[in-house]
Structures are given as C-alpha cells and as structure tokens.
Design brief:
By secondary structure, this protein is of the alpha+beta class. The protein has a domain of 67 residues: YefM-like domain (YefM-like fold, 3-Layer(aba) Sandwich), CATH 3.40.1620.10. It contains four helices and three strands. A three-stranded mixed beta sheet has the order 1-2-3. The radius of gyration is 26 Å and the shape is elongated.
Length: 112
C-alpha cells in the first residue's frame, strides 16, 4: 500500500522542465540548444509522448569529446578518454635509435 497523503512533500523538489514538440524544435532548434547549454532540461515530444531529452553537458565532460562518434564510443565503454587534462600532447619519445631505423630501411629497400 502507498504512503498516506499526509506524508508526501508539499512542494516539488524537481526543477522546472520545458517540453517542446518536434515541429517547433525543428524551427527553433538553436533556441532550445541554448536553453540546454545554460542548464535547463528540455523534453522533446511527439504527439504528446516524450521521445528525447536535451540536457546540459555533464560535469567533467572532456573538451576532447566534441566528436559525436568518440563521445558515443566513450559512453559505450569501448574507448577511454585521454587522462591528460592540460591539453598538451604526450612527450615525444623515440621509437628506436636513428642508426637502427636507417639499417632497417636499407634492408627493406635491398629486399625489393
């Protein structure tokens, strides 16, 4: 049995959520994207049924995940975002000494 009526919250603790139909969203997409970017959640409806949500980016979202394909790969867990947060590329370390690379190149050319 549910909670008695006198034991429920008197005011909602949920934030105000906007909803918009697909047709209106199509015509005013940039406006609703700005709302989501500013922190609001926008529910997208089609025939009075919620079909999608525009939500603000999560805290700690890496700036390197601008590409939607990479973002989806991270969400699915088969790709891990880089751990470098300062934006600098990793240090460039030589793969092998130059003399070794040149000898391999010469040997490869001799085989042809």
């Amino acid at each position: 049995m549910g909670a008695p009526v006198d034991q429920v919250a008197t005011r909602s603790y949920l934030l105000y959520v906007r909803s918009v139909g697909v047709k209106v969203l199509k015509n005013k997409l940039s406006e609703y994207v700005r709302l989501a970017a500013s922190g609001e959640t926008v529910l997208v409806t089609d025939r009075d049924r919620v079909v999608a949500e525009l939500v603000p980016p999560r805290e700690g979202r890496s700036s390197e995940l601008a590409d939607a394909f990479l973002a989806e790969a991270v969400r699915q867990g088969w790709l891990t975002p880089p751990s470098l947060r300062d934006g600098q590329p990793p240090p460039c370390l030589p793969v092998a000494p130059l003399a070794e690379l040149l000898s391999e190149l010469t040997a490869d050319r001799d085989e042809r």
